[in-house]
Amino acid sequence: MRVVASVVLLVALLAGAALGSSVVDATDATFDQVVASAEVVLMEFYAPWCGHCKKLEPEYAKAAQQIDATKAVLAKLDATVESKSAAKYEVKGYPTIKVFRNGALAGDYNGGRTAADLVKWVAANTGPAVTTVANAAELETLKTQHSVLAVFFTTSIGSDKFEAFETVAKSLRESFTFAVVTDSALFDGEDNTLVVYKHFDDKKEVFAGAAFDAASITAFVSNAGVPLFDEIGPHNYKMYMDRKLPIGWLFATSADTAALDAGRATAPSFKGKVSFVWIDSSKYAGMAQRVGLKGDKFPAFVINDDSQKRFVYPEGEAITDAELLSFVTKYAEGSLSATLRSDPAPQPHTVDGLTTVVGSTFNELVAEADTDVLIEFYAPWCGHCKQLAPVYEAVAKTLQDAPVRIAKIDATTNDFDQAKFPVQGFPTLFFVPKSTHVPVPYEGARTEEALLKFLESAKA
Questions:
Q1: What are the start-end ranges of the E strands in 332-427?
Q2: Which domain holds residue 111?
């Protein structure tokens, strides 16, 4: 049976090894063969009942027909049936698309979900990471076709400098296009010059760093290749996240010209220090709350840094050039206090054994508490949270005189240490022992009996 399955798979792959190919159906039995069948394989883990999967299906099929299957294969696996592979690769939701390169997992696909997005991603992630330019016309074509083009002008392909450039190209190829020119007659500057050509801002930047190594090249291209101020969306969201820079989010509409002009005027002063983006507040008001705003007054501005801290420009006040520059300058100098999202602290905070925690009381009642704590992170709209509520209240009432605090916090309106308490969905429960204050995730059944048993064993 294994031989037959292999023959069937081989025939399917050979039939699809050209433009006009179709999506390959994988199973647990054929999974390893499928992901090793091309340089790059995108594997979609789906569920037949999933609405997002159904929406993706025609786009995925259309993309497969436009991709040369000798370079990349689009495959799919029904994770509700072929559960072994889904479990192995820790698939948590649908659809999840994993990237395999030469048979090995390379990471998650985080690009757009249209056929055009998929085709563009494959083009950028297959074949040589660096394009060799043969003549002036070819160079001009690349400049025209790509919004960002990093070109290394060198006569020494085998040099350490070129190897450093190629290393960066391989790591950043999903975001930018890289090329090398070896004909000195085409050089834009001296030998071993790195230039980034772009369709925005100052159109061209030349590397001027002291050390020409992978780290320096990465920093240069990542900064030069990103607009100083741009609208953020699905097409570039990952690029901004990958920069690992604080992000200044301006929520506005195209009609908010004064606020947008303030963003454009302020951004150049913080190049390489803060990414400035704007997002349509009429479409993404919910995102405003996620990044620390109340979400009821626009235009609005907030800075998020990698420590999950939020620095909110006074909501409701006009965003002007001078005031925005002053606000971001204080942030960069470290003289601006982070804004803590917090509901008003209830009085009393504990009723029938259940303690309601808010952002301003989180450290005192949970993170640095003088007693053991079981804390539930919930969302008011979450159906699973509503189902757990009576069970959780019963546990709290049963243990109201015990040396343990049963607590809950609305994670959608209150800040907490997300690095220490990594909440990925709702409800999420952690047990925090007073002896160490190191959170322990609760992954048992959500029944009164199971929770009480867990707390008894945790206390022991």
A1: 350-351, 354-357, 372-378, 404-410
A2: 2-125
Separation between Cα atoms, residue 364 and residue 432, nearest integer Å: 12
Joined together, the tokens standing for residue 368 give: 């640095």
Q: In the structure encoding, which two tokens stand for residue 407, read together?
A: 């607590």
Pairing relationship of beta strands 72-78 and 24-25 according to DSSP bridges: parallel
C-alpha 219/C-alpha 225 separation (Å) is: 10
Residue 220 inside a domain? The answer is yes
- Both tokens of residue 293? 């705003």
Q: Is 57 helix (H, G, I), strand (E, B) or coil?
A: helix
Residue type, 135: N
Residue 345 lies in a domain: no
Candidates 12, 17, 29, 50; catalytic one? 50
Question: Which residues lie across from 441 on neighbouring strands?
Answer: 430
Q: Which residues pair with 377 in a beta bridge?
A: 409, 428
Q: Indicate whether 340 belongs to any domain.
A: no
For the question of residue 50 being annotated catalytic, the response is yes
Give residue for tokens 């979400």: 295
Residue from 47, 53, 56, 151 carrying the catalytic annotation: 53
Give the integer Cα–Cα distance in Å for 54 and 26.
17
Count of beta carbons in the 10 Å neighbourhood of residue 198: 20
The total number of structural domains in the chain stands at 4
d(CA 17, CA 38): 9
Residue 218 and residue 140 share a domain:
yes
Distance from chain centroid for Cα 214: 23
Query: Strand runs (DSSP E) across 269-333, as ranges?
Result: 275-280, 300-304, 310-312
Please state, in angstroms and rounded to a whole number, the distance separating the CA atoms of residues 156 and 151.
14
* Residue pair 305/246 in contact by the 8 Å Cβ criterion: yes
Domain identity same for 120 and 6: yes
Which of 125, 152, 181 corresponds to the end of one domain? 125
Q: Which helix (H) or strand (E) holds 241?
A: helix 237-242
Residue 53 annotated among the catalytic residues of the structure: yes
Task: Give the predicted TM-score (pTM) of the model.
Answer: 0.64
User: Which residue from 37, 47, 40, 55 is spatially nearest to 83, judged by alpha carbons?
Assistant: 47
Q: CA nearest 423: which of 387, 397, 385, 450?
A: 385
pLDDT along the chain (460 residues), means of 10: 40 44 92 93 95 95 90 94 93 92 88 88 88 96 94 95 95 89 96 97 94 95 94 82 89 96 97 94 86 87 83 94 97 91 93 96 96 96 95 97 96 88 93 95 94 86
Asked if 194 and 179 count as a contact pair (C-beta separation under 8 A), the reply is no
